[in-house]
Amino acid sequence: MPSVSFPLAFAAGLLSFISPCVLPLVPVYLSYLSGNTLSGDSSPSRRQVFSHALFFVGGFTLVFVILFGLPTTILAGALQQYSEWITKLGGAILLLFGLHTMGILTIPILNVTRQVDIGAGMELGFARSALFGVTFAAGWTPCVGPLLGAVVTLAFAEPSRGVVFVFVYAMGLAAPFLVTAALLTRGVGWLRRLNRHMRAVEMASGLLMVGVGILLITGTFTALNAFFIGITPEWLTQYL
Predict the structure, then answer these.
(1) Is residue 184 one of the residues assigned to a domain?
(2) Over its length of 240 residues, how does the chain's per-residue pLDDT go in tens digits?
(3) CA–CA separation, 224 vs 210, rounded Å?
(4) Who is most buried in 59, 81, 100, 110, counting CB within 10 A?
């Protein structure tokens, strides 16, 4: 059945990509994956960068699904009888995350990132690119944590789809990264212009989390899902 949670999870991934702790470093990631710079006479081919980006994306997607998707699905299923209270608690935490993202309050642990040098010293190859994706997921989870937390909270509201929600989130994070890899210098130029609007991105991310948090606390999120299910054509629901 269709769920408003899927587009919300994808939107959370997109917002994670353009967050202040990820977007400015995308050219660095691409340069590291290609083993070269993205400007000058020795720029790598688009096929080379894109193929390595695919393995990078696969690396962080695997980590997110294993570390967050599977445990959330198992826990949500085991604690099904308490799902209403857990969902409300998750909504309250999500509300705090949103206020932190908007700069209204500060949660210090969410400002921490860890450098994990998995794959350092390895020769350029697809294995190193995949390990670099694992490094990204391990090192930057605290930074993207509020938005990832929103997706995990949604998973507790619909436990049977927990793994899928986290996967959709990862695809939202992966899609613009792959587009940038395919466009190379042109894509990097667009990202640099987008970087000027970081404050607007933070506010949009915070408002998304606050909104979802309020819906979960008040118990109206399921009503919103029911509304979208009601307006979805029957022929489309058969494929969802």
Answers:
(1) yes
(2) 456 678 888 988 888 888 877 777 777 777 777 665 444 445 556 777 888 889 999 999 999 999 888 888 888 777 777 777 877 888 888 888 888 888 888 777 666 554 444 444 555 678 888 888 888 887 777 677 788 888 888 777 777 778 888 999 999 999 988 888 887 656 566 666 666 767 787 888 888 888 888 888 887 776 666 655 555 556 545 554
(3) 16
(4) 59
Which residue range is the domain that position 196 belongs to? 26-37+45-230
Domain membership of residue 18 (yes or no) is no
Report the distance separating Cα 49 and Cα 36, nearest Å: 10
In a domain, 223, yes or no: yes
Number of domains in the chain: 1
Asked if 65 contacts 170 with a C-beta cutoff of 8 angstroms, the reply is: yes
User: What residues have CB less than 8 Å from 66, skipping those under 6 apart?
Assistant: none
Tally Cβ neighbours within 10 Å of residue 120.
11
Which 8-state DSSP code applies to residue 44? P
The DSSP symbol for 181 reads H
Nearest to 163 by CA among 78, 26, 66: 66
Q: For the chain, what is the radius of gyration of the CA atoms?
A: 19
Per residue in 157-195, is it b (16+ CB within 10 Å) or e — as a string? bbbebbbbbbbbbbbbbbebbbebbebbeebbeebeeee
In a domain, 217, yes or no: yes
Q: How far is CA 105 from each of CA 99, 188, 200, 233, rounded to the nearest angstrom?
A: 6, 32, 17, 42
